[in-house]
Design a protein that fits this description.
510 residues; mainly alpha
Length: 510
């Protein structure tokens, strides 16, 4: 294995170095600056509570990695370093996987397109903004490359059933780290199948019936891995008396909302992706769709006798970005639509490494499009992280101001009364930042995300603990006292926005 990695690296030095350089243009800010996004504060202030929540979501693999590696004592700098290191390893692992099934010298020139388009995507930036799980999710993501390698090795090289066992085990574990990786796995499997279909007549000579059997086995093994993960999860629930949360299942709208509502949600999601709504989507999907359709008809004669598989495999790849919406019957959070950047990255690379694509004009066109999409994504993702950086600076100032005001009222920085936060704030971001309405969670302040006094107080106090400001948590009864007492109080930062009433300290933000 070591020799294969060495060989791949020696033949793809430009791809690896250029990819890592472009990726660092987005994530480099995290190496040298301490920033905290939503949920990162929990990993520092109340880690056991966070890990218990993950277990109740069925993410036992995520907790297992934390315990085994020692990352359960969360250090943002250390987590960032290993996360960046793992991105470099991802560039190599996925490159090795693709190179096995691409018989074209263009691969050595243009493989960089895949990692650059994938990892600079704002969707990936949003996902990895949750730094407390970035290393673990990326580790599981890389395990999927190894799992796919073994399942195709079974069909194309040696019928060793141990390969299938390894595939199922790795798939089950990866899904236990982060459930949204299910769609990434499906997307990646289709990508490799397309490469195999291209080379079939030249290398393997599978009949159509053989290819359909292969697809059927892929589907069966996917569900086996998925079910094994569910069984282990349920077993852990029973052994440790864990109550399952509805965090993941609660997002599924099928059966809860009407069929028409769910259908509208899915259609809204699809239209949003195609139109490039929000900073997380762009016209990239529409551009790639047009390029794929052009490529399909341009090379239709090359797939005589395999038209159905030829079209279905590419159609399946084009719809993978919408799988999460179809599964949920809803417009999903941007950070779970991981199959979209994966599909875009693979397709743009594939168009340039296609064995039938040797026209120079087309190559130049595809390269320019890839560069433009990559550069646009770098700007968006880097701006997202700059927004996060500025937000952290401003919320530190707000935290210090609130702490000083509480000191003036109580005469101590550690009052005996619980501190309760009512409402939320709108931050004064500069013009180079994305504003609150553009963001999901990464880049938002802990002071502007509050669903209720109970939720806001818990979130804000956990954040304050990360910078050494420790307050006592209130009871529900004390929160009710604060809600009643704050009605005539002015909002922050006006005089009187922080008051000591009814045995509690009330901070009225809005």
């Amino acid at each position: 294995m070591g020799n294969k990695i060495k060989e791949f690296c020696s033949h793809n030095i430009f791809n690896i170095l250029f990819s890592c350089l472009m990726i660092l243009s987005v994530y480099g800010i995290k190496l040298f600056n301490l920033v905290l996004s939503i949920d990162n504060e929990a990993a520092i202030s109340v880690p056991e509570s966070l890990y218990s929540a993950w277990l109740s979501m069925g993410r036992w693999g995520l907790v297992a990695i934390k315990r085994i590696t020692g990352f359960d004592f969360y250090n943002p700098f250390l987590s960032t370093f290993f996360f960046i290191f793992l991105i470099g390893l991802s560039v190599i692992l996925w490159g090795m996987l693709f190179s096995k099934y691409i018989d074209n010298p263009n691969f050595k020139k243009f493989y960089w397109i895949f990692p650059v388009i994938l990892f600079t995507s704002p969707i990936m930036a949003e996902q990895f903004g949750f730094l407390m799980q970035a290393f673990e999710v990326l580790f599981a993501f890389d395990l999927l490359a190894i799992a796919i390698y073994f399942i195709y090795k079974f069909f194309l090289e040696k019928r060793n059933y141990l390969y299938l066992v390894v595939n199922v085990v790795l798939v089950a574990f990866s899904f236990s780290v982060y459930q949204a990786l299910t769609t990434v796995y499906v997307t990646a499997m289709i990508c490799i199948f397309i490469l195999i279909l291209d080379l079939n007549k030249k290398k393997w000579h599978f009949k159509n019936s053989d290819l359909w059997k292969m697809i059927l086995i892929f589907i069966v093994l996917f569900f086996v891995g998925y079910l094994i993960n569910l069984l282990i999860t349920q077993l852990l629930f029973n052994i440790f008396d864990i109550q399952a949360t509805d965090y993941t299942d609660g997002q599924i709208q099928w059966g809860k909302a009407s069929f028409l509502t769910c259908l509208k949600n899915v259609l809204f999601f699809i239209v949003s992706v195609i139109r490039g709504d929000t900073i997380f989507y762009s016209f990239s999907y529409l551009i790639v769709l047009i390029l794929v359709l052009f490529d399909l008809f341009q090379n239709i004669k090359m797939f005589k006798g395999q038209y159905v598989l030829y079209f279905l495999s590419r159609f399946a790849l084009l719809i993978t970005p919408f799988l999460m919406g179809l599964i949920l019957g809803a417009n999903p959070s941007k950070r779970v639509v991981l199959s979209l950047p994966f599909m875009l990255a693979f397709t743009l690379m594939y168009l340039l490494c296609h064995k039938n694509n040797d026209k120079k004009a087309l190559k130049v066109c595809y390269v320019l499009i890839s560069i433009l999409i990559g550069f646009s994504q770098i700007q968006t993702s880097a701006r997202l992280y700059y927004t996060e950086f500025v937000t952290n600076k401003e919320q530190e100032r707000i935290a210090a101001n609130i702490s000083d005001q509480i000191y003036e009222i109580t005469g101590t920085y550690n009052p005996e009364e619980p501190v309760i936060f009512i409402g939320s704030l709108n931050l004064n971001r500069n013009n180079s930042c994305y504003q609150s309405g553009d963001l999901e969670l990464v880049g938002r302040s802990f002071f502007e995300v509050s669903f209720s006094p109970s939720h806001g107080t818990y979130l804000m106090q956990n954040y304050l603990k990360t910078i050494g400001i420790n307050y006592i948590y209130p009871t529900e009864e004390q929160i009710n006292v604060a809600i009643t007492s704050q009605e005539n109080m002015p909002v922050w930062p006006n005089t009187g926005c922080i008051q000591q009433v009814g045995g509690v300290i009330v901070v009225k933000l809005s």
